[in-house]
Amino acid sequence: xxxxxxxxxxxxxxxxxxxxxxxxxxxxxxxxxxxxxxxxxxxxxxxxxxxxxxxxxxxxxxxxxxxxxxxxxxxxxxxxxxxxxxxxxxxxxxxxxxxxxxxxxxxxxxxxxxxxxxxxxxxxxxxxxxxxxxxxxxxxxxxxxxxxxxxxxxxxxxxxxxxxxxxxxxxxxxxxxxxxxxxxxxxxxxxxxxxxxxxxxxxxxxxxxxxxxxxxxxxxxxxxxxxxxxxxxxxxxxxxxxxxxxxxxxxxxxxxxxxxxxxxxxxxxxxxxxxxxxxxxxxxxxxxxxxxxxxxxxxxxxxxxxxxxxxxxxxxxxxxxxxxxxxxxxxxxxxxxxxxxxxxxxxxxxxxxxxxxxxxxxxxxxxxxxxxxxxxxxxxxxxxxxxxxxxxxxxxxxxxxxxxxxxxxx
Length: 410
Prior knowledge:
Layout: E1 3-9, H1 17-23, E2 29-33, H2 39-45, E3 48-53, E4 67-68, H3 70-75, E5 80-84, E6 87-91, H4 94-104, E7 113-117, H5 121-132, E8 137-141, E9 160-163, E10 188-191, H6 200-208, E11 212-213, H7 216-231, H8 238-251, E12 253-257, H9 264-274, E13 278-281, H10 282-290, H11 294-301, H12 303-318, E14 323-326, H13 335-343, E15 345-352, H14 368-385, E16 388-392, H15 397-409
Parallel strand pairs: 1-2, 1-3, 4-6, 7-8, 7-9, 9-10, 10-11, 12-14, 12-15, 13-14, 15-16
Antiparallel strand pairs: 3-5, 5-6
Helix pairs in contact: 4-5, 4-7, 7-8, 10-12, 11-12, 12-13
């Protein structure tokens, strides 16, 4: 029986390809995990109309094909195979995907020094695109190459940095391939990782206001071109941005931050119910971990111990996809928490008049003067962490919800 269309690879547990191709209009697309010893049989039996190929088979399939496009030969890998009446045609749609991603992010290569981290297939794609688009100098960094991670200081003058390694990919989200702060001239950052949505490299770029992108637009763009090749059609490129936005919206968490008593618990509960999403409350997670209330934890163990428990809860919650997260008021005090919250989420700061904040049963906000001092310290951190700022009137819950949903839909 012929498999209509699909993706082959060794491990595909976290692939987004099926929903992307479904949104492109192909409902006959499926995943096929193939072991190395079965790869040749799968390819040569030709029980498919078209397949995409991912790690680790993009090079391995090439000798099994009848015709290979010039761009795939130049890059040295094939990620799309079309069965044309028994003739297997191989192409590489990653080139288009990478070029589209860079252009949409406002990252231009002409006349620039480009630093490419990694030596695998995506590195070859990045090199081909940046060459064709006029890069002045291209440096490829590998662990054992002439240009390696021990002599990166030679290239701190790079204009564009492209990460094609898996460093920082889920579940090892705390890892970072470089410290961007060492690169003082950088004007564009591309990280081909898209899970999490924001790696540490992307977060550093955002903090410095540097144009940047993750790899999701590339994934969608290359899928769009593969779809066109499968069906011999020309789909408008506008579909790429629409699908990218939808995939991110479906995968991202919604995080609420703000001062103690601002309404995070109430509003997060309502949003979770309205959107049929799971709610994770980091304060509840801390209470559950110690079987004690937060005031008891403060009294018995002290604030620093509570903050350690809170960091564990924040990191655990932030690793999830498509959940609502309500945080404690002080969760943003630690930089590692702010990074974790921003990594895979849209972060909403519920900004509230200090006079309306509750103070009952709250260890650190017992009176208005204490709250004012707390606000002076925390407000700059809330602002730095937030993607969206909503001014909350605690007497207007429905209006608050409408404002939040309006901002989330944009």
